[in-house]
Design a protein that fits this description.
Length: about 180
Amino acid sequence: MKVIKTDVLDVYIIEPQVFGDHRGWFMESWSAKKMEEAGLYYDFVQDNQSFSAQKGTLRGIHFQKGDAAQAKLVRCGRGAVLDVAVDLRKGSPTYKKWVAVELTAENKRQLLIPRGFGHAFLTLSDEVEFLYKADNLYAPQADRGIRWDDPEIGINWGNITPILSEKDKNAPLLKDSDVDFVYKK
């Protein structure tokens, strides 16, 4: 398993080792031991999976606030996505910075996103299955989002007219949200 730092503090690309032969392939998608050897400590308690039928579906920018905040390890099991993590931790050296990584069923890359970040993804193909681990249970009362096209953040999604949920269409801008994350060294 290869752990790659990104330009955004505390976000990592995880490249699992894939073993293949004439029958197919095998990979270890998560190993607490190998992550701890890399200095990363997470106790994931929930696995989630979503399906998006159409290319151009955008989900996010989502997060849970307060004590319900979640770290996530995300990957694409079928199809392809542009996956984005946004640092929402006030006081962080990379506050409001974002990283975008293409995750596909073929490249098997994963993105490790700590608590204090917003998360979003854009489907780059039809029929996308997206999987993620979370280190905290889903808490509907803490579920929040900010606009996918917030100019203060400036994510480069390309020239798109995304397919959005009503929740994402009506999400507030960062300046109007109740984000309460604070960076701790």
